[in-house]
Write a structure and sequence with these properties.
The protein is α+β, with helices and mostly antiparallel strands and 413 residues long. It folds into 3 domains: 6-96; 102-177, Beta-Lactamase, CATH 3.30.450; 184-407, Histidine kinase-like ATPase, C-terminal domain (Heat Shock Protein 90), CATH 3.30.565.10. It has helices spanning 6-36, 41-98, 118-124, 135-141, 179-222, 229-257, 268-279, 305-322, 355-358, 375-385, and strands at residues 102-107, 113-116, 147-152, 158-166, 170-177, 264-267, 288-293, 300-303, 327-335, 341-348, 389-394, 400-407. Helix 1 (6-36) runs antiparallel to helix 2.
Length: 413
């Protein structure tokens, strides 16, 4: 509570002293009247009545006089208070208008828009479709954490916005435009995907070259006009087998290079196996032994299969480089006892991660080798976009471990 101003304190003290003097005078008068008028009750009654009226009038006049004396001070205080209110309102209005976030103010009960800042007016024309989902749910639940959703701007474009709702009687809806950031993240993911394709291409080319040499040899044999029908059929079968092998290799590479396909219910074990088949052709992983645990039953998650496959390709390639092409990788799927989340542990037998690098491992462009420094950063962003977490640690017996936590789809055992 703010302390009283000096003039108000002095005014209260003066009024208190004035009423004390009136009280003292009334007590003295009562004593004098009781001594002089004991034998005349009627006179005594009139005197008391006049005394009460006189004391009331004197008290009222004293208060009125003191109020009139303090009126200029009160008027000055009111002027200063109004100036302070105007200054605060102007300051907060400037902050409201200059915010880079889109701010909209609504009445909580009627959802009538009260105000919108310049950024909200420019992007959304100061309006939000609060009657359509997911806005009714957000207004009802008012989650504490930031919610990211697509909002259609006034120019018709879709923007990725982080939404925060606060307030009780009045609702402040704050939206932060993350469209450009998400586009940059997507561009980085594409760059990293292309970098991974470049690393895998040499292995794919080597694998394609072997069946091509076989096909060339069988085609040479088929040129012999004396070849029996049985031998010709056998050689054609070998040619078809080689072409099928090439087709499968190219299909695997194209599938990995294909842009993201959107979220769907997928088997995480199948995604990991697909990533393993892809990297098995690359030079750092040709001699690496893979061991899988917990793959006996499906592990269904809602995710983009292509993007998650990119995460495991990055983790496998990093492990292969760390082990310099020799060692083992153990992949374990661990389900929480409650059945709501799954952890995938990718453990290698390499030298581990230097302690000073653990905190910077997922920073963009941080690398200890010749890579782009984007692989782990992009992987971290992909996992976060799926509502999960990616972290790294060292194993007690040596080697590095990357732990990927993801929420399971509802109904997954």
């Amino acid at each position: 509570m703010n302390p009283l101003p000096a003039w108000a304190t002095r005014s209260h003290l003066k009024l208190t002293l004035y009423f004390l003097l009136l009280t003292g005078a009334a007590l003295a008068g009562s004593w004098w009247a009781s001594e002089r008028m004991q034998t005349d009750p009627e006179r005594m009654q009139r005197w008391w009545l006049l005394s009460v009226l006189a004391l009331g009038l004197l008290g009222w006049l004293g208060v009125l006089f003191q109020r009139l004396r303090t009126l200029p001070a009160r008027r000055e205080e009111l002027r200063q208070w109004a100036a302070q209110v105007r200054s605060d309102a102007q300051r907060y209005q400037e902050l409201f208008e200059s915010s880079s976030d889109l701010l909209l103010l609504y009445e909580a009960g009627t959802l009538r828009r009260i105000d919108a800042n310049a950024r909200a007016r420019a992007v959304l024309e100061g309006r939000l479709p609060l009657e359509s989902e997911p806005w009714p749910r957000l207004l009802r639940e008012r989650p504490q954490e930031l919610q990211e959703l697509e909002v259609r701007a006034a120019d018709g474009s879709l923007r990725r916005m982080e939404v925060r709702i606060s307030g009780s009687q009045f609702l402040l809806i704050s939206l932060r435009d993350r469209t450009r950031e998400r586009e940059m993240e997507r561009e980085l993911a594409i760059r990293e995907r292309l970098s991974s394709i470049g690393l895998l291409t040499a292995g794919v080319a080597h694998e394609i070259n072997n069946p091509l040499e076989g096909i060339a040899n069988y085609l040479k044999l088929l040129e012999n006009p004396q070849l029996s029908a049985e031998a010709r059929a056998r050689h054609l079968g070998q040619v078809q087998h080689g072409l099928g092998r090439i087709r499968d290799l190219v299909r695997e590479l194209l599938r990995f290079a294909r842009p993201q396909r959107g979220d769907a219910s997928i088997d995480l074990a199948e995604v990991i196996q697909a990533a393993r088949k892809l990297v098995a052709l690359s030079e750092p992983l040709r001699k690496v032994e893979f061991r899988f645990e917990g793959f006996e039953r499906p592990c269904i998650v809602t995710a983009d299969a292509g993007r998650l496959e990119q995460v495991f390709v990055n983790l496998f390639l990093n492990a292969g480089h760390a082990m310099q092409g020799a060692g083992s990788i153990r992949v374990r799927i661990l389900r929480e006892s409650g059945g709501r989340a799954v952890s995938v542990r990718v453990e290698d037998s390499g030298p581990g991660i230097a302690p000073e690098h653990l905190q910077k491992l997922f920073d963009p462009f941080f690398t200890t080798g010749e890579g782009s420094g984007l692989g782990l950063s992009v992987s971290w962003g992909i996992v976060r976009a799926h509502g999960g977490m990616l972290r790294a640690e060292n194993l007690p017996g040596g080697g590095a471990c990357f732990v990927l936590d993801l929420p399971l789809s509802s109904g997954t055992g």
